[in-house]
Amino acid sequence: MNQYETVLHHIFNDFKTFENSGKKATYIPELAHVDENLFGVSLTCLNGTQISLGDAHQPFSIQSISKVFSLVLAYNILGEDLWKRVDVEPSGDTFNSLILLELELGIPRNPFINAGAIVLADILISHLQNPKEDFLKFIHQLTNDHSIQYDLKVFNSEKSVAYRNYSLINLMKSFGNIHNDIDTVMDFYFRMCSVNITCEQLSKAVLFFANDGVHPISKEQILTPKGNRRINAIMQLCGFYDEAGEFAYRVGLPGKSGVGGGIMAIHPGLYSVVVFSPKLNKKGNSTKGMAFLERLTSELNNSIF
Ligand code: GLU
C-alpha cells in the first residue's frame, strides 16, 4: 500500500458513520431519484495508480463540473481573448444569480457560475463543428473510455424547469454577449451538465490539471502550462460557488463541485481526487465530500498552501 492508499482507507472507514445534515439537489427533478447514501472516492496519482473506494464505479451527474471541460475547450480556441466575454473574479454570489449580471452589463463574473458557462457554451457553438459530439469526444479522449454518455433523462428534466437559466441567457443576449440562438445554446449547456460519469473516470479526466496541462498517461498536451495555471487559479477562486473561500481554507486545493454531489480537486504535481456523495450543504457543495477532502489534505499535510 502506498501512503495515499493507507490514508484513504482509514479516512473512508471513519466516514462510514459521518452525520450528514445535507440535502440532495431536487430543483432538477431527476436528481431527486438518486440514492443519497452513495459515497465514492477515487484518487489518481500522476503515474496512473488509482485508488478507488466505495461507490467509485457508480455513475453520477457531472453537472457544474462539466464547466472545467468547456472552459479548457473555449480557452484553447480563444486564448486570452476569452476574458473579453467572461471575467475571472469570484462572484461571492449564488451560481445562478441575476443581480451581478445586470450590474456588470452582461459579462459574467467567472466561467463557473451558470451565466459564465452559458457564454462558454455559446463560444463553443460558434467554433466547433459538432459541439455535442466534440464535447463528449473530449471527455472520451481524457478518460480513454468511450462508454461515457449524456443522460437524456437528466437533460430533459433540467430543461423542463430551467426558468432561471433562461433568464440569464436572455439578459446576456440583451447585452450582446450571446451570439447564437438561445435554445441552441441552452440545449448544449444542459447536455454538458447531463454527462454521467464515475469517480474513477472523472479522476482520470482531470489528471492533466495536476501535471502542467499534459495528460500523464497519454502524454497529450491538453493545455499549455500557462493556460493550466490560469484555469487552476480560477478553480481555486471560483470552483465552489460562494463557498470558494471556505474550500480554500479547509481543503486548500483547486477544484470544482457540482449539484450532482461530485467534487473534483487536484494537487499540482501529485494527484487528482474525486469524491461523490449527493447530499449538499446550503451553498450547494457535497457536505460529506468537502469534509472528506478536508480530512485528506489535513492527514496528508499537503494542501497547496
Ligand atoms: N445544470 C445545473 C444548473 O444549471 C448546474 C448547477 C451546478 O452544478 O452548479 O443549474
Give the arrangement of secondary structure elements:
Blueprint: H1 3-14, E1 40-45, E2 50-54, E3 60-61, H2 66-78, H3 99-103, H4 114-127, H5 131-143, E4 149-150, H6 152-160, H7 163-174, H8 182-193, E5 195-197, H9 199-205, H10 225-238, H11 244-250, E6 255-257, E7 262-267, E8 271-276, H12 287-300
The chain binds glutamic acid (GLU).
Model description:
- The chain is of the alpha+beta class.
- The chain has a single domain (3-298), classed as DD-peptidase/beta-lactamase superfamily (Beta-lactamase).
- Helix content is 43%, strand content 11%.
- It is built from 12 helices and 8 strands.
- The strands form 2 sheets. The chain has a 5-stranded antiparallel β-sheet with strand order 2-1-8-7-6, with helices on both faces.
- A hairpin with a 3-residue loop joins strand 7 and strand 8.
- Helix 2 packs across helix 4 (114-127).
- It is globular and about 55 Å long.
- The model has no long low-confidence stretch (mean pLDDT 96).
- Bound molecules: glutamic acid.
- Residues 63-64, 95-96, 114, 158, 165, 193, 258-259, 284 line the site of glutamic acid (GLU).
Fill in the keyword field for this structure.
binds glutamic acid; single chain; 8 strands; alpha+beta; 305 residues; 43% helix; five-stranded antiparallel β-sheet; three-stranded antiparallel β-sheet; Beta-lactamase
The portion of residues forming beta strands comes to 5-15%
How would the global form be characterised?
Answer: globular
What's the architecture, going by CATH?
Answer: 3-Layer(aba) Sandwich
Can you list the ligands bound to this structure? Answer: glutamic acid
* Element order: H for helix, E for strand: HEEEHHHHEHHHEHHHEEEH
Give me the side-by-side strand order of the main sheet. Answer: 2-1-8-7-6
The residue-averaged pLDDT reads 96
User: CATH homologous superfamily, by name?
Assistant: DD-peptidase/beta-lactamase superfamily
Main sheet makeup: 5 strands, antiparallel
What are the segments in which pLDDT stays under 50 over at least 5 consecutive residues? none
Let me know the number of strands.
8
Number of helices: 12
Number of domains: 1
Q: What's the CATH topology name?
A: Beta-lactamase
- Head-to-tail CA distance between termini: 26 Å
Q: Which structural category do the helix and sheet elements fall into?
A: alpha+beta
CATH class: Alpha Beta
